[in-house]
Design a protein that fits this description.
The structure is a homodimer.
Chain A lengths: L3 H5 L2 H17 L7 H8 L3 H7 L3 H26 L4 H17 L6 H7 L3 H8 L4 H14 L10 H24 L4 H17 L4
Helix pairs in contact in A: 2-3, 2-7, 5-6, 5-8, 6-7, 6-10, 6-11, 10-11
Chain A binds a DNA duplex (30 and 30 nucleotides) through α4.
DNA sequence: TACTATAAGTGACATAATGTCATATGTCAA
DNA sequence: TTGACATATGACATTATGTCACTTATAGTA
């Protein structure tokens, strides 16, 4: 989490800093990113950066969490719109994230995020920060999903189902973005795998 | 790939260097690893390192590929031993990798690999280097697997099935290692998810 | 208004990392 | 012995990171 001083910043300065960080993290991965470039773009001195953020990661995960928050809201909305159809809701999120990764303009942030996806990044994406939050959100989803359609009989089984779905969704995203699939190709692959998932892998 | 000079090294020097690298990559992740530490341990000058490897990654992926090669052989053996039962063979590999991640002695290499798993690392793990190799290996597996038991009707569907299985297997490994699960807990989780995968997610 | 405590801003600096290159050394065949 | 080639070496240029002593701003108080 950024330090309080960051949140105390006036909007202009804050936005300029956030944009500078986003540009740098769009250029390269978290590990290759250079704080010096962010400073240059944001026109702030080195000391100030450390006044606002603990380090490079802190700034990166701030941006990522902002994005993840949006995706979570989308997911909940989709779940409602599709009457609890988990797979349709997930497919919409998949599409959205994939489209973000295709923005060729100023921001390749999501593309870089996906191509360097690891446990910590996935975690930031799917859960949000606190243990409490995770359980709370999981429960929200559990309430909204149409369980009748699913092959699970309790919350624990549903947890496993979600783990599988998340694994396959991210794996697809990363694979398709890394291999520069078109949106149609990516969606085809994802839908094929979802369909196999639904019907089961064995006879 | 390491440079030819590396392979020309006499065994003593080569082993010392490889061990030095393994120790460093066991201490921290690829990105945090310091070449200086490898040099100190291997007692070679800086210039020599770059005579043998292109960079830090080069050394890291050399070690990883060695390991992945072993796992691939295991997998093929298991597939034969279990008469083409894909799930049993995969569960054995899962167990083995998990056990490697638990080695508390000199080497936490696999633990660090799993905890920093990303696309590139997964790729090194599952495929080996060349496109040709990937297709070749995939075909080998396709020949060995008992297709009768599976819910797929052609090689393309089998490809999707393997993608799912790989996604879920790695996701489990990373999750269980990151959260310090015991071997029993990890195996329980994996088996639960495999069972859900087999029977299908929807009714 | 002047004073003071607290927060925020600043950039030079210590430290450590990476990759390169000119130079030195070793090896082997003619 | 010589020359061509491969290998070895460590000083160096460059670029990072995170800290700290010091300055400046702000807001509450006498």
């Amino acid at each position: 989490m950024p330090k309080q001083t960051f949140f105390n910043l006036n909007d202009d300065k804050k936005n300029k800093l956030v944009e500078a960080a986003r540009e740098e993290f769009s250029r390269v991965s978290l590990y290759e990113a250079s704080i010096a470039n962010i400073l240059k773009r944001a026109e702030i001195p080195r000391g100030s950066f450390y006044q606002y953020f603990r380090d490079k990661e802190d700034a990166f995960f701030y941006l990522l969490n902002e994005h993840a928050e949006e995706r979570h809201k989308n997911f909940i909305e989709n779940l409602k719109a599709f009457n609890g159809d988990l797979f349709q809701a997930m497919t919409e999120v998949y599409k959205t994230v994939f489209q973000f990764s295709r923005e060729n303009g100023n921001s390749n942030f999501i593309r870089n995020v996906l191509m360097n996806m690891n446990y910590k990044i996935e975690h930031a994406f799917t859960k949000n920060l606190t243990k409490q939050n995770i359980e709370h959100r999981f429960h929200d989803i559990y309430q909204l999903v149409d369980m009748e359609a699913l092959h699970v009989s309790n919350e624990k089984e549903f947890y496993h189902l979600m783990q599988i779905l998340i694994a396959v969704t991210f794996h697809n995203l990363v694979h398709c973005v890394s291999n520069e699939f078109s949106e149609t190709e990516a969606l085809d692959k994802y839908i094929s795998e979802l369909s196999l998932l639904k019907k089961g892998l064995v006879k």
